[in-house]
Amino acid sequence: MKLKNISVFVLLLVVPFLVNAREIKTRAALDSSIILIGDQVKLNLEIEYPSDVEIFFPIVADTLGEHVEIVERNPVDSIQIDENTLKMMQEFIVTSFDTGHHTIAPFQFRFSVSGITDTVETNPATLHVFTLPKLDSLMNAMQGPIDIKAPYEAPVTFKEVAPWLFGILLGAGLIFLIIYAINRRKQNKPIFSFPQKPKEPAHIIALRDLDHIKEEKIWQQGKIKEYYSEVTDTIREYIENRFNITAMELTTDEIIKKISEQKGLLDDKTFDNLKRMLSNTDLVKFARFTPLPDDNNLLLVDAYFFVNQTKIEEKTESNEEEEDNEGEEVILK
């Protein structure tokens, strides 16, 4: 009696399990079973099962046998077909680099129902890989031509074009540089010229030097000869920069002669002022003449007067005010 009860109990467990197993449908299908060597094709792995069954999707390696490789795989997806049926699927991109007929082994799904675990398999799949001549023979055997796909034209990338582009630009730059250098040489000019700092106006330099001499007051230290030399050297340098006369290399008489030869260069008052200033300096430097304190004052006044009377600058309101003050006596203390 006990044995009979146990048999009935086992039968009650196994029957639902077998029924659910029959309701599970698996499928492994290739989009195309014939490819050229190196081409790619999709492999779809699917399973339909009752909603009360727990499915364990197989973990697929990167190779399917010795000759078929997985190039890309999509994640496992699931959909509900009806109230009691679910479907799980996964898509793979596969390829092969060996010709021949390659069998893809069945995939095994584990499932669990009512606490009992078992497995169910998909159908095997076969991939036929051909080279181009064999594929042509196969198509002829299939009685009917098919359209051949046009070759795929990959877009040209910047990385491919960049070396040519930079080479052309470099060559053009070198040619331009050579032509530029030849033209500069013909013109007796340096190949590269850099802008020079604009030179200060002659009167700005002279007035700054005179201010410096005034502040030093070396005549009060008994350096009369040095004082007269510094003042007249400033005036000589001013004449060079202002009138393009090499005054630093000429004697007083030669300077006076060159200025007098250029009619209208100086008015009479300014000309007499310059002669007095240079002549008194020659007396101090070469004739051991000892000037009076007023003569020291007059020398610097004459120098300021000469520069201010002959300077060239744009007329502005501040310049006009300075011109009104020209000729003021410079007081030396």
Question: What do these coordinates show?
Answer:
- By secondary structure, this protein is an alpha+beta fold.
- The chain folds into 3 domains: 130 residues, Immunoglobulin-like (Sandwich), CATH 2.60.40; 37 residues; 123 residues, no CATH class.
- It has 9 helices and 11 strands.
- Strands 1, 3, 5, 6 and 7 form a 5-stranded antiparallel sheet that branches. It has a 3-stranded mixed sheet with strand order 2-11-8.
- Strand 9 and strand 10 form a beta hairpin.
- Helix 4 runs antiparallel to helix 5 and helix 4 runs antiparallel to helix 8.
- The N terminus and C terminus are likely disordered.
Averaged pLDDT? 79
- Give the domain tally: 3
Q: Give me the CATH architecture of the largest domain, please.
A: Sandwich
Give start-end ranges of low-pLDDT stretches. Answer: 1-20, 322-333
Please give the radius of gyration in angstroms: 55 Å
Helical fraction equals 40-55%
* Estimated share of beta-strand residues: 15-25%
- Element pattern in H and E: HEEEEEEEEEEEHHHHHHHH
Number of helices: 9
In CATH, what is the class of the largest domain? Mainly Beta
